[in-house]
Amino acid sequence: MSGYGVVTGINGNIQFDTNRKAIGAWEHGSTSTWNNIPTSPLEPPTPLGYIHSFDYNCDMIGIAIRPNTSTLIGTSIGSKSYYYFTSLWGSDVRVTLGDRGNIFTSSPTTVEYAIYSLDAESRTIPSWGLITYNENQEIVFNSGLRHLKITEIIEVNRTPLVTVDDFYWPGPGTVTFSHSTPNPFYILPNSFMKMTYATWGDGEMWVAYAFMTIGIQKISATSARLQRLILALSGHQVPIHAGFEKRLDVFFEVPNPLRIAVCVL
Prior knowledge:
1 helix, 6-stranded antiparallel beta sheet, about 50% strand, mainly beta, about 0% helix
């Protein structure tokens, strides 16, 4: 065991612990560059998702984001797959969405972010400052890096987010929460959902699917809302008939319990 122990700061935050590696910021910055997420050309114009991806050669632990009051922002570590149809009776197109790290948004905006990785410690060696090693010569503190500082962990009610509330179009599934830290960054867990919507084509109603993730939007300095953020639409699947809604292929990849990390740089 290490002979150094734990050094803590305000709110009991661990500054460094010689039994554990610190999680440093691989990159801190902001982006206003977005790509449209491909969706079915059969559908009418619908507010859908945009993506900004990071393909850095590191093991990403989390992406912290600072949302604004006008836009839903989501994140994912790793890619997901979905599909869309290019014609009413044609074959589907399978899409791998994203890279090692991704930020999603409901409309183009500027998002401040921090990408955290254990690999950041050994990548950045400052020309001055303090580096602390444990007995295995692993860096456990590096003053040349910003480190992950979680001030609060908020457990929220996930039920509205994982409830099929409207067969014809997914509702927002809104959940609000508050915290003590003003104007923080948030780390969201990975999430991915598929829910139905109804669309008209070829003289009849069809079942189709919306692919979603959880997005967060700022309400005030100490509160935020979670909502389902639609990323893409599948387009027409099968015609709707009586009782069909009972056999729908709907799924929710949402952690239970659902916890949001409130953090600062």
